[in-house]
Amino acid sequence: MSAAGVLRWQISGRSCELRSPSAAILEIGRLVLTHGRDATAASPSAGERVWEVDNHPTHTNAWQVRGPAADHTQVFATPADAIRAVEFATMEHLLATGPSTISLHAALLGRGRAGLLIVGPSESGKSTLATALWRQGLAFWGDDVALVAPDSAFLSAYPRRVLLRHGSRALLGEALWHHLAATPSFMATSEGCLFHPHELPGSSLPAADLAPAGIVFLARRGVSLGPAELRPIPPAQALLALAPYSNIVRNEGMGPALERLQPLLARTPAHDLGRAPLPAMLAAVERLLPRDPDAPCAPPPIPTSAGC
């Protein structure tokens, strides 16, 4: 690699680094990985959480990405594709190598300092429901990975862009989709699009961790519900249902997962939510979070003729 610039950022107290001789790579990385802020973080330990992006030596207009496993190189057609690979690989690496990290495959929203987790299998509608709740006034922290503090069970989100699938476009309306397309880190993908919610006017980055106030399960196996029915789940059942969505099961097994998630479930009510038109599901979920006049600002309403 020729003389490289360096971009550093922190996730859950751990330092990450991107090295590249390309100003375009570093600028896209700054928007996507550090939320457009000038990041300051200590340099990672040698060989750990360091990604290098450079022009491919033999393929014109191609970019190669090398991660902590330096023997493995990926090739991408555009700078945006290369940064997307770093964005997702950073998450996978941190969750796989951080034994103290508790993560959940879940969307995370908040009102004030109260946090709501939305849990469900892939393509169950987590991102669509979370985005619609954001439009209703909740703060949008993340759509895919929520982090749980081991000592307090407080919640935060992995700072990855939100993925909206094409199927959500009609549900959320063309006006919102076009507003998202104008944000700096927006990226169209084969699945739909990636975006940072805080880049829309009136939004902001989360400032503090959230106290867990509720967990909503979508499409839980073996559960039959009426439209938008919100049914309480006993804590022991909720613990068994939530554990498979954690990184602990993959890294340590079911027993440790149940033990380490128990403090979260002991203090947080969980509910199943039945499928229904979005307005009915929104009304049901809204009842779970306390009203807080000091809640973070949501984006201003976006005019649209399409309902949620």
What layout of secondary structure does this protein have?
Blueprint: E1 5-11, E2 14-20, H1 23-33, E3 50-55, E4 63-66, E5 73-76, H2 79-97, E6 102-111, E7 114-119, H3 126-135, E8 139-142, E9 145-148, E10 155-157, E11 162-165, H4 167-172, H5 174-181, E12 187-188, E13 192-195, E14 211-218, E15 230-233, H6 235-242, H7 247-251, H8 254-267, E16 270-273, H9 278-286
Main traits of this protein?
308 residues; alpha+beta; Rossmann fold; 2 domains; 8-stranded mixed sheet; 5-stranded mixed sheet; disordered C terminus
- Oligomer state equals single chain
SSE topology string: EEHEEEHEEHEEEEHHEEEEHHHEH
Total domains, how many? 2
Query: What is the mean pLDDT?
Result: 86
Q: Whole-Å distance between the termini?
A: 48 Å
Q: What is the CATH C-level name of the largest domain? A: Alpha Beta
Q: Can you count the beta strands?
A: 16
Spans with pLDDT under 50 lasting ≥5 residues? Answer: 295-308
- Could you describe the largest sheet, including whether it forms a barrel? 8 strands, mixed
Beta-strand fraction estimate: 25-35%
Question: What is the helix fraction of residues, given as a range?
Answer: 25-40%
Class from secondary-structure proportions:
alpha+beta
Form type: globular
CA radius of gyration is 20 Å
Number of helices: 9
Which architecture name of the largest domain does CATH use?
3-Layer(aba) Sandwich
- What is the CATH fold-level name of the largest domain? Rossmann fold
